[in-house]
């Protein structure tokens, strides 16, 4: 994740953690929804004890049957929808949608066109376990809400389908279930998601494993962004002393939402780099990422795609993604900032004197992973200075060794820092803090 450039950016590990938490929250809430629905249906009639129990039992059986029936019809509907995309059958796709909603139908036409345009090898839906909630207060127009898993695989870029968890709503019209809203992300907090087909018309540029998706009315930018990514991956990999790779989907469309630094913050990241995973039917994330995404803040795409530093920052996360599991946030964000500003150093950069004074006066400790992003400008600037000191003093390879020395198991990454610093560089935490602030003091002020 990158700060609103030159001010601020959260790190992939934290985001993945937040995503995992977000997913379990969603599941818990949905499970409660199911419980409440069946509790409501068990309200007994009055009469004698025995007959009312029997009647309530019958009633409940009937309601359960109706419910199971609705669930299986909705599963079939999603199956039809997946198949329509696969068979390139536009009419069948639109037939899954509640036609009384003209805005929805129009949006669904665009979505279908986008799905046809993009280089996708898989696009399909699954329902996630029992996470159904049926509202049958209006008996003739029952409504349902379900957690749906959308599986999408980009040709070349993805090793397997990347799953997006969505909340979809359905409505029953004349005995048939239809899509009432095509799905918004269930991902809470700052968990990122890239679904470029969900908004306006899109266009794309493909270079082997690299796919760049842009708004159709900005299609002229796709090729130059792809050029830029290819050359920046090559130079980043060179600086990081690792092998370049290009299996990446870059979403530079205005679709979707931006990603916040922290739930309570109004600051949004300029861009975010993250890994996509496949989810089991229960909504659990399977081990090992299957795709890589960079998503630009959809509200500012046009200004941001010209920003080379931002791109270099996000490409650093992409290129080092396999190593992110264990390291503290300041380490990965510090490295991404180092590469983003390279070949500049703090001594060649200018920051606001107000920011300078404020950050300089902060307690001399590096931000911990859980608190990272609560004060984005300070967190990124200090991480950048710490990484700059370590890389410029000990070399990139030693910094890579330091990053890889963290264990994903056991103690938190922050708790491992002191021991790893001593082992790899022979320095302690307070020495690093002193050097970080010394480096910070080389920033120019304006
Ligand atoms: Zn970042």
What are the key terms here?
single chain, 446 residues, alpha/beta, Nuclear Transport Factor 2, Chain: A, five-stranded mixed sheet, four-stranded antiparallel sheet, 11 strands, 45% helix, elongated, binds zinc ion
Notes on the protein architecture:
This protein has 446 residues and is of the alpha/beta class. Among the domains are: 21-193, Nuclear Transport Factor 2, Chain: A, CATH 3.10.450.50; 326-446, no CATH class. Helix content is 45%, strand content 19%. It has helices at residues 12-40, 49-86, 90-94, 102-117, 220-240, 301-304, 308-319, 329-341, 353-360, 376-394, 396-404, 413-425, 429-440, and strands at residues 120-135, 143-154, 162-173, 176-185, 202-207, 210-215, 248-252, 271-276, 291-296, 350-351, 444-445. The strands form 3 sheets. It has a 5-stranded mixed β-sheet with strand order 5-6-7-9-8. The chain has a 4-stranded antiparallel β-sheet with strand order 1-2-3-4. The chain is elongated and about 75 Å long. Mean pLDDT is 85; it is low at 6-49. The structure holds zinc ion.
């Amino acid at each position: 994740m990158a700060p609103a450039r030159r001010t601020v950016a959260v790190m992939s590990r934290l985001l993945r953690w937040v995503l995992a938490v977000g997913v379990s929250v969603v599941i818990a809430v949905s499970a409660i929804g199911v419980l409440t629905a069946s509790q409501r249906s068990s309200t007994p009639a009055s009469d004698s004890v025995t007959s009312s129990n029997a009647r309530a039992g019958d009633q409940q059986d009937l309601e359960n049957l109706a419910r199971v029936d609705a669930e299986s019809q909705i599963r079939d509907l999603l199956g039809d929808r997946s198949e329509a995309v696969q068979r390139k059958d536009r009419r069948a796709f639109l037939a899954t949608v509640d036609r009384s909603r003209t805005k929805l139908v129009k949006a669904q036409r665009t979505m279908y066109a986008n799905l046809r345009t993009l280089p996708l090898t898989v696009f399909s839906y699954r329902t996630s376990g029992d996470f159904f909630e049926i509202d049958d207060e209006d008996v003739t127009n029952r409504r349902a809400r379900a957690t749906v898993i959308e599986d999408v695989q980009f040709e070349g870029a993805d090793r397997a389908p990347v799953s997006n968890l969505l909340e979809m709503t359905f409505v029953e019209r004349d005995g048939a279930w239809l899509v009432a809203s095509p799905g918004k992300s269930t991902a809470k907090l700052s968990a990122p998601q890239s679904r470029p087909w969900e908004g306006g018309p899109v266009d794309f540029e493909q270079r082997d494993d690299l796919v760049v998706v842009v708004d159709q009315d900005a299609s002229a930018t796709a090729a130059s962004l792809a050029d830029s990514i290819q050359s920046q991956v090559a130079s980043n990999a060179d600086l990081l002393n690792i092998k370049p790779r290009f299996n990446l989907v870059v979403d530079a469309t205005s679709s979707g939402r931006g990603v916040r630094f922290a739930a309570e913050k109004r600051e949004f990241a300029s861009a975010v780099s993250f890994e996509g995973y496949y989810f089991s039917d229960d909504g659990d994330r399977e081990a090992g990422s299957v795709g890589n995404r960079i998503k630009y803040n959809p509200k500012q795409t046009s200004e941001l795609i010209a920003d080379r530093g931002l791109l270099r920052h996000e490409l650093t996360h992409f290129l080092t993604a396999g190593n992110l599991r264990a390291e503290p946030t300041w380490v990965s964000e510090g490295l991404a900032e180092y590469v983003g500003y390279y070949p500049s150093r703090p001594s060649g950069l200018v920051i606001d004197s107000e920011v300078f004074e404020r950050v300089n006066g902060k307690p001399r400790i590096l931000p911990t992973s859980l608190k990272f992003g609560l004060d984005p400008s300070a967190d990124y600037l200090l991480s950048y200075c710490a990484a700059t000191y370590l890389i410029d003093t000990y070399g990139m390879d030693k910094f890579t060794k330091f990053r890889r020395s963290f264990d994903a198991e056991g103690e938190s990454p922050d708790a491992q820092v002191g021991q790893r610093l001593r082992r790899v560089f022979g320095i302690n935490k307070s020495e690093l803090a002193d050097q970080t602030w010394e480096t910070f003091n080389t920033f120019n002020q304006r």
